[in-house]
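Board notes, transcribed. Complex of a protein with nicotinamide-adenine-dinucleotide.
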Amino acid sequence: MTEQANTQNAIPTVKLLIGGEFVESKTTQWREVVNPATQQVLARVPFATDKEMNAAVASAKQAFKTWRKTPIGTRARIFLKYQQLIRENIKELAAILTAEQGKTLPDAEGDVFRGLEVVEHAASIGNLQLGELANNVANGVDTYTLLQPLGVCAGITPFNFPAMIPLWMFPMAIATGNTFVLKPSEQDPLVTMRLVELAVEAGVPAGVLNVIHGGVDAVNLICDHPDIKAVSFVGSTKVGTHVYNRATQNGKRAQCMMGAKNHAIVLPDANKQQTLNNLLGASFGAAGQRCMALPVVILVGEAQQWLPELVEKAKTLKISGGTEAGADIGPVVSCAALDRISGLIVKGESEGARLVLDGRNPQVAGYEKGNFVGPTIFTDVTTEMTIYREEIFGPVLCILNAATLDDAIELINSNPNGNGTAIFTRSGAAARHFQEEIDVGQVGINVPIPVPVPLFSFSGSRASKLGDLGPYGKQVILFYTQTKTITQRWFDEDEVGGPVNTTITLK
Ligand code: NAD
């Protein structure tokens, strides 16, 4: 055996989960999972064969026959156990996440925690999957609804929240009585797989949760497979639009949460230090790789004078490997992502924006091979520029100015995306005006990243979302169930029959 083959064998492989078994793929196509801070190869992930993917769907279809009838309390108890296991293992989960994705350890723990909240929500399924009943809608007639599971559902997840977003999907789908096929991001599947192992340990039965790995082929199989009834997707707008069109043309339900270009408005009456801190955290935290990051800030009126202080504060953020104490910004996920971000910064300059803070090529001691880019700030940005139009998905902040709040609102509503937004002000009237007029799904008022807790549903508008119903909260119960409406009447044995009723009226 050659030395190269020996090294290959030493690298762990990511398994598929089919019918309750973690199995090695027989594929010939593999991709490396790489630590973005060091370039160390952590694992190899397979691109599953058609046969393996079909076996995963078949196993989910088979398991649905019994899982759909499993008592709601049994389902809830599995998720009670699951939330406990996630809590007990949160440090390990965060460490796996940081190693493969790059975000800092505290942020990785936050990623797991926001997913854990959805697992807790799934544990309360008994209170969520309730039908309605109207007594005596006609003489002796009652009408009620059942919320019944759909069958096999599938989820396709992005790289930037490899814990939270899989946990947005399979716990709620399974808790409502469906079975599931998950396709994690091929860039960082390791923490997702550890969460899947814990779900199995918590008692999710064989075949109820299955995992396939891959890229385009896996996604297309999910969209086309006749036994898959609903598809949840989170990722870029380009891929999400493709998934939505293909899945819905094949008669499936689909919810696609997609790309973003979130703006914050800063009014001059805002609490200055709070606002600057919040802007920096939301623009540069997770190296700008959050769909709810704030890559655009609109300074209104005299707030424009805060720019020098914002830039000075940005310089104080610590760039380092995510495991280093005090690190504020870790590496971006891949060399390709770094090249793309660097290319967009060059483009910003060439199109006339003013680069007031250049974060390229930072020297990061101990992580010389990492994919680092530090806080980068552009001013004099116009809405025609590529850096404004495209989602950069890196720590690059575009500053725009507006004379009035209404001008700023108009700017945001003219952008095609509608994922998240925020306003910083101490004026209740201004905040309320903003809340009413803005056409964006998630709105923060002095809250920079207003991701809703699972009592509510994640939303999004315009180019950021396709499908009516969002992940978690009340909406996802409707997404993962079919409403059946039952109208019933019972006759005693001695009930006297009247004339034949040829009308549609219930009497
Ligand atoms: P991505 O679209 O590249 O990948 C998402 C999934 O699609 C992955 O599982 C990937 O394997 C698959 N995929 C990639 N290219 C494909 C193709 N050509 N055909 C079919 N499938 C393909 O997204 P990403 O880079 O992993 O994640 C970042 C994006 O996700 C950003 O645009 C971000 O805004 C978005 N995002 C949105 C939300 C939200 O809730 N709106 C949340 C997180 C991330």
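The pocket of nicotinamide-adenine-dinucleotide is lined by residues 156-161, 183, 185-186, 215-216, 219, 234-236, 239, 257-260, 291, 391, 393, 419, 458, 460, 464 (CB under 6 Å). The mean pLDDT is 96.
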